[in-house]
């Protein structure tokens, strides 16, 4: 058993007969009244996001998990297939277990959280940023870097990302996976 002082991003807990992963949390100590922890949790079984408030010192049941490196192989329309980097076993996951599946390209190495009780995969964590190629966007205008104006662009994986006006088709850009936003252009 853990308490609210152990809450951190990525912690998996049992709550309402389901397993949830903590996405965001905030310890709040108001001037009047007891302290509490405000959390945003995502169900690892169905992908629903739940806002919840725990009072300070509340006991929570944490789930023991292990992390393993897996390589994304392919998407067959229903399942996403991954291969363990250590023993080459393969697993398949539904889209609900993935945070931003549209940002994964084949061959990408991701971290998979696995429940140690039943060896079931719980969730997939992408790297902090990914480099993708722009396949479709309006033509860029040279010298148009001073404003914060953006335009939609389609990546090689099919993801839609807003990019600055100077980005052209064929450019490679770095995307922050937690927000799904443009970070910088990559020269290779």
UniProtKB/TrEMBL annotation:
Give a GO cellular-component term.
cytosol
Question: Which processes are annotated in GO (biological process)?
Answer: peptide biosynthetic process
Q: Which GO terms describe its molecular function?
A: translation elongation factor activity
Keyword Transmembrane helix tagged: no
Which residue numbers delimit the Elongation factor P C-terminal domain? 130-185
Task: Please report the stretch or stretches of sequence annotated as the Translation elongation factor P/YeiP central domain.
Answer: 67-122
Named in its record, the pathway it takes part in is:
Protein biosynthesis; polypeptide chain elongation
Q: Which Pfam families match?
A: EFP (PF01132), EFP_N (PF08207), Elong-fact-P_C (PF09285)
Q: Which InterPro entries match?
A: Elong-fact-P_C, NA-bd_OB-fold, Rib_uL2_dom2, Transl_elong_fac_P/YeiP, Transl_elong_KOW-like, Transl_elong_P/YeiP_cen, Transl_elong_P/YeiP_CS, Transl_elongation_fac_P
| Sorted UniProt keywords | Cytoplasm, Elongation factor, Protein biosynthesis
Give its localization. Cytoplasm
Annotated function: Involved in peptide bond synthesis. Stimulates efficient translation and peptide-bond synthesis on native or reconstituted 70S ribosomes in vitro. Probably functions indirectly by altering the affinity of the ribosome for aminoacyl-tRNA, thus increasing their reactivity as acceptors for peptidyl transferase.
For this chain, the family text in UniProt reads:
Belongs to the elongation factor P family.
Question: What is the protein name for this chain?
Answer: Elongation factor P
Organism listed in the record:
Lacinutrix neustonica
**Lineage, top ranks:** Bacteria, Pseudomonadati, Bacteroidota, Flavobacteriia, Flavobacteriales
- Point out the gene that encodes the protein: efp
